TrEMBL record:
Name the record gives this protein: LysM peptidoglycan-binding domain-containing protein
GO molecular function, one term: lytic endotransglycosylase activity
Alphabetized PANTHER family for the sequence: LYSM DOMAIN-CONTAINING GPI-ANCHORED PROTEIN 2, MEMBRANE-BOUND LYTIC MUREIN TRANSGLYCOSYLASE D
Keywords: Signal
Position of the signal peptide: 1-20
Domain LysM, chain residue ranges per copy: 24-67, 85-129, 226-269
Xref: SUPFAM superfamilies: LysM domain, Periplasmic binding protein-like I
Composition bias type Polar residues, residue spans: 133-151
Amino acid sequence: MKYLFVICFLFQVYSTSANAQAYKYHTVKKGETVFSISQTYNIDEEDIYKYNPDAKEGIGINEKLVIPVSTSKPESKTKAASQFVEHRVKRKETLYSLAREYKVSVDDIKRYNKQLYSKELQMGETIRIPVGGSNSTEDSGSLIADNTSKPSAPANPAKSQITSTREHIVLPKETKFGIARKYGMTLKELDALNPKVEVLQPGMMIRVGTDVLEDEPVIITDERFRFYEVQPKETLFSLTRRFGVSADSLKQLNPALKDGLKFGMVLKVPENPEGKGTEENDYFNMADAANMKIDLSSSVNNRSTKEIAVMLPFHLNKIDADSIETYRNSILNERVVRISLDFYSGVLMAVDNAKSMGISTNLKVYDTKRDPSQVANIINTNDFSNVNAVIGPFLKETTEAAASKLESRNVPVINPLSNRSMRGFENLFQSRPSDEILKNAMLDYISRNAQAKNVIIIADGQAFQIKSELTSMIPSARTVTPTNNYVSEETLKKMMSPGANWVILESENINVVSSATSALNRLARENDITLLTTNKNNAYESDIISNNHLGTLKFHYPSVDREYDIAASEDFINDYEERFGIQPNQYALRGYDLTMDVLLRLASAEDLYESFERYPGYTEYFESKFHYMPKSGGGFANDAIYILKLNKDLSITNANDF
């Protein structure tokens, strides 16, 4: 009986193809009847009842009916299908130069690479170039069943890049996602080949590509995996971060990635948006990768000259033609200009150091004048087509202006200093971790180390949110609310225990911080006390707050920068003093660290984006470390921070309590 069913099924498929019978779906509209629908399609009512038995009981609005459609129309003549050459775009190549090289028009290239209608050609991108004539097959409707068993060219080249097709019989529980993935197609390509197909039905015959993947197709998802459609401007790097899986694992799940990632591609991905892997699924543990330090100086293999644009607010417009005195005054009076010059001095030191490693750099410097319109004008009037990265601008508004203008060209824009929330441009990198990242890192540190500690939380009314997070994380913690911005020693003394006491202080009020640290310093004579905070704000920098008290309390806090090792950086400091006559400050060191990281990443990979995919760990230099993660709204943020500890001798070290 089983074999009889299979034979009957195959016979039915054969008959459908031989008789050129195809079907489409009709959505019932208000006022329509079976009779009016039959008149619309010039068929008998019985034909509708044959394929829709339930229709005899009546039809309802928005109900879908299977309608048999005759495809006995004469077939249009078709020119020979074009042949294609796959071309990997090289530096400085343009659509115009490729059109001349292959003797085709720019429109011909765009027609078979539809992403080029909305974005510019990208270096490293693989495109298909038609050679040997144009494919002008007329659209015969692409109905559910084709009337030929031979592979044919796509019905509409502008809608699909598939150049040869085959028939696919829809199996039970198959979805468009699964079929598209099986044949290495995008959903848009599948829909373009089958424009009349709205809902898949078992036994239906549809048109697909001929490139069948080697692995067994996944018909439906399970609790471990699901299908995902690649969105515009997503990269393999951003997908590995999104789904917490390595690039190699993603390629194993999706053999079609061997030809590169493309917009609209359907991928099989872990059902795991937070990246919490399991041994069963063999996920790549991204948290472990983030905690792994890498040294890119030993991985330099890309010796091409790095094109770097630096955008900083120098305010050169304030210099008089005959005198630099006014500019000297502006340096003294404007903090942003001073920071720009210090940062730029670090950039120059990094470029020179990279040169000694065999990395040559073509540095172009632009004055943004702290004006977004000036940034737009710079990009409009200069050639940024070969720029590997833009370092700067400093401020939020000018950075967003640069990222917006360069997003379509995929040129990375790295903001050096701002931790303000910025718009989600896909090419925007914020190198300074936000306050939220600092807070979350400190919370993670506390949760991992608070076991067997007597935890006391001091939080004023302004810190109610972090107080709530801490008490939820450590239910056994006891809390203290300051009275009139004051924390009494008596209150804290009652809460001390003979063992280790961890006091978490959350306040931006100088009086609260001062009274709390003074009281805890006195109690530390007889108690083991460690002071911690998730937010080392300006209150701790006040002269009222004693650093000696903080040192006694082994003060722990999150930080973007660490104290650099003078002995380890002696050569750098000497070279800097010889060149600029002063010792490097924090902004000069930041300029050096950031620029060196960018140059080493560019020298160890094809581009900045690939370097993050190839080297998932963090990099570290004199004061800063870098580990970029995709932001939910777009772009990337550095989440590499330090948990620092102030010691009794007022030296600062990395906390290593865990």
